[in-house]
Amino acid sequence: MAKCAICGKKPVYGNNVSHSNLKTRRVWQPNTHKMRIIIDGKPARVNVCAQCIKSGKVQKAI
Length: 62
Hints:
This protein is mostly beta strands. 10% of the residues lie in helices and 45% in strands. The strands form two sheets. The chain has a two-stranded antiparallel ribbon. A two-stranded antiparallel ribbon has the order 3-4.
């Protein structure tokens, strides 16, 4: 269960609700990818969510 190192996005918990209104627990996972990015001028391998990658909040390490 990964958490985004940039925005702090983490899993969200709730219920599946069936047609008969039975409830079972479920988890919505964030779309995270392990990437090498620049943090404080040094490359680091961290989990980053797709929204942070697309918005340009991360600088990829080469």
